[in-house]
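C-alpha cells in:
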C-alpha cells in the first residue's frame, strides 16, 4: 500500500501514505516501509542527477537532520499509536495548508536551512514525513524548479539512508526483520 501511494504521489507520498497506512498497520511498520520505499526511489533519482546537485544546502540539511534523528526514533518507540495517529493527522493538515496556501518568502541562509533540516530529521525517524519542513523552506526561497528538485532528492536519499540504518541499529520493528532477510546465507 505504501509503495503504491509513494509511486503515485512522488514528493508528497508520505502525506498520503502514512495516514492511510496507520489505519491498518502499526506505526513502526508504516515508518519502516515508507523509509525503505523512499530511499530506493530517491537513490535511483540521485544517481541520475548527481552532476548537477548544489551540495551546500544538501550538506547543511543533512548535518542538521542527523542531530535530531535519534530523538525521532525515541518518539516512534515511546509514543502510543493513538497519540501518533492524532499527531500525524494534525501535521498533515498543517503541512497541507502551508504548502497549498502559504505564500512564504524565505531568505536563503544556513540558519533557516539548518532549522528545516532539524525538523526534517526528527519527522523522518518518528513519522516518515521528512519532506514538509524542507519543501516549505525551499519553496519559500523561490528556487528554479530543477534546482529545487535536485536538492530535495539528494537530501532525502542521504537522510533516508541514515534514518534506515539508525532504525535498524536501534531495533525498530519491521526494519530489523527486513535487514536480516537481506543478509546473504552462510
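Residues out:
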Amino acid at each position: 500500500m505504501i509503495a503504491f501511494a509513494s509511486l503515485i504521489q512522488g514528493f508528497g507520498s508520505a502525506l498520503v501514505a502514512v495516514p492511510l497506512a496507520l489505519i491498518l498497520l502499526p506505526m513502526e511498520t508504516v515508518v519502516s516501509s515508507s523509509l525503505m520505499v523512499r530511499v530506493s526511489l530517491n537513490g535511483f533519482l540521485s544517481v541520475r542527477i548527481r552532476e548537477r546537485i548544489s551540495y551546500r544546502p544538501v550538506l547543511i540539511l543533512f548535518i542538521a537532520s542527523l542531530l535530531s534523528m535519534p530523538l525521532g526514533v525515541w518518539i516512534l518507540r515511546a509514543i502510543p499509536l493513538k497519540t501518533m495517529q492524532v499527531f500525524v493527522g494534525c501535521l498533515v493538515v498543517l503541512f497541507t495548508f502551508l504548502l497549498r496556501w502559504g505564500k512564504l518568502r524565505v531568505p536563503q541562509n544556513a540558519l533557516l536551512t539548518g532549522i528545516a533540516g532539524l525538523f526534517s530529521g526528527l519527522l523522518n525517524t518518528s513519522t516518515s514525513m521528512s519532506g514538509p519542513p524542507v519543501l516549505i523552506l525551499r519553496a519559500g526561497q523561490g528556487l528554479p524548479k530543477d534546482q529545487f528538485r535536485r536538492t530535495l532528492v539528494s537530501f532525502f536519499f542521504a537522510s533516508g539512508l541514515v534514518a534506515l540504518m539508525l532504525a535498524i541499529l536501534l531495533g525498530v520493528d519491521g526494519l530489523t526483520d527486513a535487514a536480516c532477510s537481506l543478509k546473504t546465507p552462510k
